[in-house]
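Hi everyone, sorry if this is the wrong subforum. Our group has a chain we'd like a structural model of before ordering constructs, and none of us has done structure prediction before. Sequence below.
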Amino acid sequence: MTYTEISGVKIPIRMWADPAAVEDGAMRQLRNVTTLPWVRGLAVMPDVHYGKGATVGSVIAMEGAVCPAAVGVDIGCGMSAVRTSLRAGDLPGDLSRLRSRIERAIPVGRGLHDEPVDPSGLHGLATAAWQDLWSRFGSVATAVHFREDRARRQIGTLGAGNHYIEVSIGEDDAVWLTLHSGSRNIGKELAEHHIGIAQKLAHNQGLVDRDLAVFVARTPQMAAYRNDLYWAQEYARQNRTIMMELLKNVFRREFKKARVGFVEEISCHHNYVAEERYDGMDLLVTRKGAIRAGSGDLGIIPGSMGTGSYIVKGLGNAAAFNSASHGAGRRMSRGAAKRRFSTRDLEEQTRGVECRKDSGVVDEIPGAYKPIEQVMSRQTDLVEVVTRLRQVVCVKG
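Answer:
Right subforum, don't worry. Here is the predicted structure as tokens:
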């Protein structure tokens, strides 16, 4: 698969998605991005769909500027995966107890820990990074300082929506643990705080879409945003790390006789900013619903709660700013999914997966997402598949 190039205002749009299959609202958002004076490149992933300001599934490269909406409000949202020493045959026939144990160990939805997790009590988890994270909390926007206790108790929690924890089986019969989550409420509040500031700046008053408001280099507003952005990205990373350790502990207790082991964790953000260099330019690259797929980079591309996931290795395609899709991508809104599908549909589409099958998660039904195989077929020049995972347990908030 190679990309399709379509015309934009200041730059062309490189699309790994089928332009004819992208909804009008998302195409309008993509063209709006190409009007920004600071934009130097736009790569569109095959899971692209309409988002707030900027589409989900877009990679935007800017020189001397960054757009908070091109990161999204769940700063640092991403995936983690760990291969275990267990085989499919080690799992019990009834997986309901295992799902229940996971849900008791890791708060889901709006839940939070009664007390902040003590990282020193978790296997092999460095406390230095934890201490550094909280030593820097005083430097983030004062508007969120009153949220410190909540933020401390939410780290190591899942959240709701499309966030999940899964137990999966690889093509070689190995058991994998995967999870998807971000910076929880604190990241959302920081993002909304800075988007509000950006929209009031003079240089953003003539934009075609006020949600594309940017911060520009060498300004106090840009410095403040990047400080808080990087803090929230680290919070999200540690949130996933702690959840994974809590999940491993569940497996250590449940499979004592097997003396379960774990290989090194794969982790990747898919809502974030990175400083990268392309075509001789130092650029700020925002990935919103996209992972870094530099040559040899390992990543995770999930489908939906009934269709499995892929562990991939990046091919380093500079035309895509070394990126790939972050998942299957929605093909209908949550409201549309609730109107279209029933709990009976959910039961049918998640047959064989131990998971919630009630009305509260109908909007996450596989039918609301693009077929993951189709998405993968459109990015063969971005990543190669290491293994395909088939989930047998899915925990959602």
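For your construct planning: The first strand starts at residue 4 and ends at 6. The chain has a mean pLDDT of 95.
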